[in-house]
């Protein structure tokens, strides 16, 4: 996909987010587009940065390390979100490189991140990934365990600002978005990262504060 079309896609996605927010009587500025740039090289990402996009998501620490330090030198105000499963031996690199961790998905990772943030004196906002579809192969905390896990994360010293989910591919995403919103509401959490290329307008209608859009922006992977 050419750079011009990624920028065209960016404008179309921003318009769709704003339309969906207005229809739901929400402030369009209350929704942040997280541009998911995994598998795309710096040359594909740069035009999107030049067009004004500043928030990006990557799912692998090593891949992000290979392309983002140079992009950050050029665009110091960008914000990088980790959206994929983290291994505890990569916590050090993740805390140094990312600005938000969206994928706190198990106790061991919460512990590793808390220890590393203290070591680096770098306290990043974190989201808890909830496995709303209770899929055995999928990362995340079960919905019924989310409240207790949130408390244990806070006891460790993590700053948990919200929740993230990836609904099952073959189910109506709105049900999962509504469930995530309810877990956030009862815990007083304000950040809801939900909605991807196929369903972000629905997520915005149901209260998403962050939508994570990859293929609709950069093209198929
Ligand atoms: C890849 C990915 C996305 C983006 O998916 P698209 O369908 O390409 O928009 C969003 N969230 C997570 C966690 C991902 O891994």
From TrEMBL:
Record has DNA damage as a keyword: no
Domain (Alanine racemase N-terminal): residue spans on this chain: 11-220
Molecular-function annotations in GO: pyridoxal phosphate binding
Cofactor needs: pyridoxal 5'-phosphate
Keywords on record: Pyridoxal phosphate
Location of N6-(pyridoxal phosphate)lysine modifications: 38
Transmembrane portions of the chain: none
Pfam families attached to this UniProt entry: Ala_racemase_N (PF01168)
Family as reported in the entry's similarity comment: Belongs to the pyridoxal phosphate-binding protein YggS/PROSC family.
Protein's recorded name: Pyridoxal phosphate homeostasis protein
Species this chain originates from: Novispirillum itersonii (Aquaspirillum itersonii)
Lineage, opening ranks: Bacteria, Pseudomonadati, Pseudomonadota, Alphaproteobacteria, Rhodospirillales
């Amino acid at each position: 996909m050419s750079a011009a079309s990624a920028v065209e896609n960016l404008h179309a996605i921003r318009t769709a987010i704003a339309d969906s927010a207005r229809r739901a009587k929400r402030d369009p500025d209350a929704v942040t587009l997280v541009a998911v740039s995994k598998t795309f090289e710096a040359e594909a990402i740069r035009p999107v940065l030049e067009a004004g996009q500043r928030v990006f998501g990557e799912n692998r620490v090593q891949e992000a390390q290979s392309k983002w330090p140079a992009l950050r030198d050029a665009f110091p105000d960008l914000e990088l979100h980790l959206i994929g499963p983290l291994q505890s031996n990569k916590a050090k690199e993740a805390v140094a490189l990312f600005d938000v961790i969206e994928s706190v998905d198990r106790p061991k990772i919460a512990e590793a991140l808390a220890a590393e943030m203290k070591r680096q004196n770098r306290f990043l906002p974190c989201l808890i990934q909830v496995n709303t579809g209770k899929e055995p192969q999928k990362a995340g905390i079960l919905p019924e365990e989310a409240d207790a896990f949130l408390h244990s994360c806070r006891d460790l010293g993590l700053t948990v600002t919200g929740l993230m989910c990836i609904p099952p591919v073959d189910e109506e995403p709105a049900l999962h978005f509504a469930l995530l919103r309810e877990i956030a509401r009862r815990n007083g959490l304000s950040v809801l990262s939900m909605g991807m290329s196929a369903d972000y307008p629905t997520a915005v209608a149901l209260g998403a504060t962050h939508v994570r859009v990859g293929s609709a922006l950069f093209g198929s992977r």
